[in-house]
């Protein structure tokens, strides 16, 4: 079995919360309301995975499955500059795949398999956001079972990539904020049960005061629950 790798999220406090960064051979889900920082963390990771191991990376490339047109090359440029990495090279190592609907999103996983088998050193797969298409296409109670079944299949194939190729899978999931629920259990997460079981790590993001963000680790199998504060700056994610 290959050794588990970690990818830095940019903030020391955040890395400490998840024992050194997001893990390979695992699925990490971040969920939170609009503007909580899910896409920003995705962009940060797309860059940090490319760093050498001693700087918190895996010397690897990344696939960014973009379902809502959130990928911003100019944001990558800012973050790459902050790490003094060559912007063009960094962008070349981010394979952006736009998914037009949920079926396309599911098929994308086969393309990722092919990319890796052709020799590309992919160490991170980002899906931003996991649920947008599923949520839009499967509306109403009667379609819920089918949606969950499709989602389950999708997550299973992502997990398989994670295990087979020692890759980290990072998923974002938008959920509605519920007042005063931060210390309770976020049971209303849109993915429901299926996602709850597939994710190895689940991180709840919340807006704090003065532009700060709070990340709370919930239902992790090995790590204690806890939280940290981080900031989103032009340089990316920082303490
Ligand atoms: P969605 O809107 O659902 O995509 O939410 P999200 O959780 O993905 O939010 P996102 O990651 O896009 O974070 C949005 C927040 O990040 C904004 O409110 C800003 O505070 C911050 N942000 C985004 N881009 C920049 C930037 O270029 N510079 C700085 N300093 N902050 C930024």
UniProtKB/TrEMBL annotation:
KW Phosphoprotein (keyword) present: no
Please tell me where ATP binds in this chain: 32-39
> What keywords are assigned to this protein?
ATP-binding, DNA damage, DNA recombination, DNA-binding, Nucleotide-binding
Keyword DNA damage assigned:
yes
- What are its GO biological-process terms? DNA recombination; DNA repair
Domain (RecA family profile): give its ranges. Answer: 3-175, 180-239
The UniProt transmembrane annotation reads none
Which molecular function term from Gene Ontology is one that the record holds?
ATP-dependent DNA damage sensor activity
Q: What does this protein do?
A: Involved in DNA repair and in homologous recombination. Binds and assemble on single-stranded DNA to form a nucleoprotein filament. Hydrolyzes ATP in a ssDNA-dependent manner and promotes DNA strand exchange between homologous DNA molecules.
Q: Which family does it belong to?
A: Belongs to the eukaryotic RecA-like protein family.
Q: What is this protein called?
A: DNA repair and recombination protein RadA
Q: Name the gene.
A: radA
Within the intact protein, the region shown is 73 to 311 of 311
